[in-house]
């Protein structure tokens, strides 16, 4: 079995396959270490938004020092799991997979790498992740900027920010961590905001020594806390209904947070959204607003329109002098499997199959692409903890592999089941605050207007449907004679 990617999705897939099947596994990773997004993203203040006891594998407990883990701790956890389950010998680090080709005659995949190697696998699992392709803006003059300019996912530790005039473009979840992370170092800081987001305090903190002792030594204590966290997340899902009382509660909580935290009236008005909570990805940040209160930090509530050799120009035509440009401009999440050429039956490319929109049954399998599985695929983002979602997706793949071991020639998705699944997901999403019909703009939608990234419910809902429906839509076929 070939797995592409050694982030949490690839790690989950390898462990589930080894636990539940007799498959041999090879894990390809283009980076020099495991960890995926938690290896790539190392910017100041980088930490997860989901509580540590939920943003971790159900099968491997860890002595978490904080309620919300920082990037170095998450990277340590990824390596700890790799070593605990003996995955290190399976890794092919620094190896980028470029092509996956299904051979109909031999009933296997040919996997080709950037260094010219070719490998054969019965099953291939892509675990490339959703937020892996940086979104670089196409501003006129960007290439003429004379200072350092870099995306947050390619943070440059060699750039000294001390005393510099720094601009951070963007006010999403990443920027909300970077701004307070560098505010104490820079000479001045401009924060460019195209549109405000709903921000709520994350309430992160260090676990007390007593709490850590309990979670380490009391049987079931960490699992119980994990269950409580998932239970609370179910109630939160209701807030995405714009007519719900929970929607009003969340908006009230966020606006109250603005009133209590942001000192300047003009800034308070600028950071208050005029759209429903949940239209965009909510931002959890306990120090972002406080950083905006600092005398050398200024919010520019206008989008950047162009770049000069020594600064940025906003949509009013105002020029801002800048020494260092930090692009917190997000990713391209709707470009699934970007950079990977996957070909299935009749050599059809998966990107041709996804020409109108990316879609997959249960977010994992695609009709016409046998023995191929996508983790963190279309409409699987959300559900509280993506690591829990990835576990469920890895289990779908392992159950399919068991069917192959029992004699099936290959497995493929019923096209009708995939269409019905997509129609059901679309119907669920249409009732949410993130629907385009409500006038909402976010990164969830493909150019054609379909929401192709989000899962419209809790993790419990995803767990139930994946366990009930995978055999309905993923069919086993005999080897042709």
Walk me through the structure.
The chain is of the alpha/beta class and 481 residues long. 31% of the residues lie in helices and 17% in strands. The chain contains 13 helices and 21 strands. It has helices at residues 8-20, 37-40, 71-84, 173-182, 209-217, 221-237, 245-261, 265-270, 288-292, 350-353, 386-405, 415-429, 459-473; strands at 2-4, 26-29, 91-93, 97-103, 108-113, 118-121, 124-126, 149-151, 165-169, 188-192, 199-200, 283-284, 297-300, 304-308, 311-314, 319-321, 324-327, 341-343, 372-374, 410-413, 474-477. A hairpin with a 2-residue loop joins strand 14 and strand 15. The longest helix has 20 residues, at 386-405.
Chain-wise SSE layout:
Elements: E1 2-4, H1 8-20, E2 26-29, H2 37-40, H3 71-84, E3 91-93, E4 97-103, E5 108-113, E6 118-121, E7 124-126, E8 149-151, E9 165-169, H4 173-182, E10 188-192, E11 199-200, H5 209-217, H6 221-237, H7 245-261, H8 265-270, E12 283-284, H9 288-292, E13 297-300, E14 304-308, E15 311-314, E16 319-321, E17 324-327, E18 341-343, H10 350-353, E19 372-374, H11 386-405, E20 410-413, H12 415-429, H13 459-473, E21 474-477
Parallel strand pairs: 1-2, 1-7, 2-3, 4-18, 7-19, 8-17, 9-10, 9-17, 10-13, 11-12
Antiparallel strand pairs: 4-5, 5-6, 14-15, 15-16, 20-21
Helix pairs in contact: 1-11, 11-13
Features:
481 residues, 17% strand, single chain, 5-stranded parallel sheet, alpha/beta
């Amino acid at each position: 079995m070939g797995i592409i990617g050694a982030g949490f999705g690839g790690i989950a897939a390898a462990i589930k396959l080894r636990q539940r099947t007799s498959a041999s596994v090879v894990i390809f990773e283009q980076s020099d270490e495991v960890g995926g997004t938690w290896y790539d993203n190392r910017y100041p203040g980088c930490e997860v938004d989901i509580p540590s006891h939920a943003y971790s594998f159900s099968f491997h407990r860890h002595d978490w020092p904080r309620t919300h883990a920082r990037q170095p701790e998450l990277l340590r956890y990824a390596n700890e799991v790799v070593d605990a389950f003996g995955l290190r010998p399976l890794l092919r680090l620094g190896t980028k997979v470029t092509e996956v080709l299904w051979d109909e005659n031999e009933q296997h995949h040919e996997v080709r790498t950037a260094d010219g190697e070719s490998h054969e696998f019965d099953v291939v699992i892509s675990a490339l992740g959703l937020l892996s392709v940086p979104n670089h803006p196409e501003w006129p003059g960007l290439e003429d900027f004379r200072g350092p300019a870099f995306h947050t996912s390619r943070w440059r530790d060699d750039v000294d920010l001390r005393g510099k005039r720094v601009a951070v473009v963007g006010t999403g979840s990443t920027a909300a961590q970077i701004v307070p992370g560098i505010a104490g170092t820079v000479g001045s800081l401009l924060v460019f905001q195209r549109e405000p987001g709903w921000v709520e305090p994350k309430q992160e903190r260090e676990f007390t020594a007593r709490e850590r002792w309990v979670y380490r030594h009391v049987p079931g204590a960490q699992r119980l806390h994990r269950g409580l966290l998932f239970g609370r997340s179910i109630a939160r899902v209701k807030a995405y209904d714009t007519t719900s009382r929970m929607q009003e509660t969340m908006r009230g909580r966020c606006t109250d947070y603005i009133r209590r935290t942001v000192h300047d009236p003009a800034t308070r008005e600028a950071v208050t959204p005029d759209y429903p909570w949940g239209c965009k990805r909510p931002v959890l940040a306990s120090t972002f607003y406080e950083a905006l209160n600092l005398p050398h930090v200024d919010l520019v509530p206008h989008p950047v329109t162009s770049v000069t050799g020594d600064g940025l120009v906003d949509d009013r035509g105002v020029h801002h002098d800048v020494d260092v440009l930090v692009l917190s401009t997000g990713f391209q999440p709707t470009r699934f499997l970007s950079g990977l050429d996957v070909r299935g039956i009749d050599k059809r490319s998966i990107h041709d199959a996804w020409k109108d929109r990316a879609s997959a049954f249960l977010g994992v399998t695609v009709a016409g692409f046998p023995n191929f599985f996508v983790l963190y695929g279309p409409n699987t983002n959300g559900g509280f903890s993506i690591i829990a979602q990835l576990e469920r997706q890895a289990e779908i793949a392992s159950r399919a592999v068991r069917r192959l071991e029992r004699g099936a020639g290959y497995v493929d998705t019923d096209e009708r089941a995939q269409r019905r699944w997509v129609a059901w997901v679309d119907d669920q999403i249409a009732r949410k605050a993130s629907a385009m019909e409500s006038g909402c703009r976010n990164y969830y939608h493909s150019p054609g207007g379909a929401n192709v990234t989000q899962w419209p419910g809790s993790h419990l809902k995803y767990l139930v449907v994946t366990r009930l429906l995978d055999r309905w839509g993923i069919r086993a076929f005999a080897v042709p004679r």
